């Protein structure tokens, strides 16, 4: 299997549903641990939750050290990271180093770009070191495949706005550029 892979796409492209499906498939052969950084407040603590209603228990971590001790405690062979765009770049690098020195496999799931179209720092680092990149697409309101996320709420200047789900829409490249 691939040591590092990145499954990325805009809001509502089914990333978490895909993670949950991967978890069950991989769990037949490996010790799989599901984690997400603690910055995301959408899901209740200890769960990743997809929009189609399925959910899975996960560990929430606030630091690289906490993540490493979660992995040690559960003998992780495959790590699935939800909301990976919110990882500190240093945590990403630690996981990549670990995958080089051990048999650890890491699958990152997350956004590539924020609603301004800028690549998240973590996503850039993950992309650079991934052996496998897999884009997921949502549906744009015009019917084309959407790879960007548009934010229709009031911007407060920050590029991470958590918990405003109803104000985010997936858009295709054409519609994204039209709105710029
Ligand atoms: Zn469109």
From TrEMBL:
<keyword id="KW-0418">Kinase</keyword>
<dbReference type="InterPro" id="IPR027417">
    <property type="entry name" value="P-loop_NTPase"/>
</dbReference>
<comment type="similarity">
    <text>Belongs to the thymidine kinase family.</text>
</comment>
<keyword id="KW-0067">ATP-binding</keyword>
<keyword id="KW-0237">DNA synthesis</keyword>
<dbReference type="InterPro" id="IPR001267">
    <property type="entry name" value="Thymidine_kinase"/>
</dbReference>
<dbReference type="GO" id="GO:0016301">
    <property type="term" value="F:kinase activity"/>
</dbReference>
<dbReference type="Pfam" id="PF00265">
    <property type="entry name" value="TK"/>
</dbReference>
<protein>
    <recommendedName>
        <fullName>Thymidine kinase</fullName>
        <ecNumber>2.7.1.21</ecNumber>
    </recommendedName>
</protein>
<keyword id="KW-0808">Transferase</keyword>
<keyword id="KW-0547">Nucleotide-binding</keyword>
């Amino acid at each position: 299997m691939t040591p590092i892979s990145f499954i990325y796409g805009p809001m509502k492209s089914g990333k978490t549903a895909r993670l949950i499906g991967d978890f069950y498939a991989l769990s037949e052969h490996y010790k799989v641990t599901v984690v997400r950084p603690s910055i995301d407040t959408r899901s209740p603590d200890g769960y990743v939750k997809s929009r189609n209603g399925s959910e899975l228990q996960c560990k929430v971590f606030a630091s690289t050290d906490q993540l490493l001790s979660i992995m040690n405690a559960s003998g992780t062979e495959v790590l699935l990271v939800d909301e990976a765009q919110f990882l500190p770049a240093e945590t990403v690098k630690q996981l990549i180093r670990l995958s080089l020195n051990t048999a650890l496999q890491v699958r990152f799931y997350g956004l590539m770009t924020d609603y301004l179209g800028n690549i998240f720092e973590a996503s850039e680092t993950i992309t650079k070191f991934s052996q496998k990149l897999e884009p997921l697409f949502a549906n744009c309101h015009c019917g084309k495949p959407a790879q960007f996320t548009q934010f229709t709420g009031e911007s407060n200047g920050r590029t991470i706005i958590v918990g405003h789900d109803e104000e985010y829409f997936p858009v295709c490249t054409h519609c994204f550029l039209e709105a710029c």
